[in-house]
Amino acid sequence: MPGMAVDDGLTPELLLRAYGAGIFPMAETRDSPELHWVDPHARGIFPLDGFRISRSLRRTLRRGGYEARFNTDFTAVIDGCAARETTWISHRIRDLYCALHEMGHAHSQEIWQDGQLVGGVYGVTLGAAFFGESMFSRRRDGSKIALAWLIDRLRLTGFSLFDTQFITPHLASLGAIEISRSDYHRRLQVALARRADITALPCPQDAHSVIQRNSQTS
């Protein structure tokens, strides 16, 4: 794992300061007691006007049969993201981000079906920046549906930066792009100078409006 070891005195408040400086922590394994600061040479971001809703995802969104919820079970989302054979989400990271959630700086977009959590995304907010941490799916397209609803929410509530940290083929297929570290830090400073409230929706979200607004901007 690249990066400098994190001091044992890391608190949620110091973690927010780190995000403001453009760095974030990761652990080697679930049981690792140490965290490491990461500042990638190239950064992944989601242009908020560039999310790609494929025909199949559009059909899934329209078909319904699921419920999109926000911040109703943050711990279940972070646990869902960590529930894989290898994960950088250690017990310490879980505790820190749950504390950030209690402070109003970490949030979860959730997809529920038949009373079960089937997909979700969680991340951190600071100014008008959203720092996406991880996502998961237990049913087909669970994380894609969550991303569609989350990006619509970020647009509606005044955000200008969606940081994905790294870029993967999956994220790239949905419209994520890679930018240089210097470009990222420039965009970050602009976002930090603005105010946004992810909880303050000016109009309601529904599947039809999520699709329509995305079609207007992408």
Task: Summarize the model shown.
This protein is an alpha+beta fold and about 220 residues long.
Shape: globular
Stretches where pLDDT is under 50 for at least 5 consecutive residues are: none
Q: How does CATH name the architecture?
A: 3-Layer(aba) Sandwich
* Termini Cα gap: 35 Å
Average pLDDT number: 92
Strand content: 15-25%
CATH homologous superfamily label = Leucyl/phenylalanyl-tRNA-protein transferase, C-terminal domain
Instruction: Look up the CATH topology.
Output: Aminopeptidase
Give a short account of the largest sheet: 7 strands, mixed
CATH structural class: Alpha Beta
In sequence order, what are the helices and strands, one letter per element? HEEEHEHHEEEHEHEHH
Number of continuous helical runs? 8
Number of domains: 1
Rounded to an integer, what's the Rg over CA atoms?
17 Å
Residue share in helices? 25-40%
**What class do helices, strands and sheet pairing give?**
alpha+beta
Q: Work out the oligomeric state of the chains in this entry.
A: single chain
Number of separate strands: 9
Word description of this protein:
This protein is of the alpha+beta class. It has a single domain (about 40-215), classed as Leucyl/phenylalanyl-tRNA-protein transferase, C-terminal domain (Aminopeptidase, 3-Layer(aba) Sandwich), CATH 3.40.630.70. The chain is built from eight helices and nine strands. It has a seven-stranded mixed beta sheet with strand order 4-5-6-7-8-3-9, with helices on both faces. Helix 1 crosses helix 4. The longest helix has 15 residues, at about 140-155.
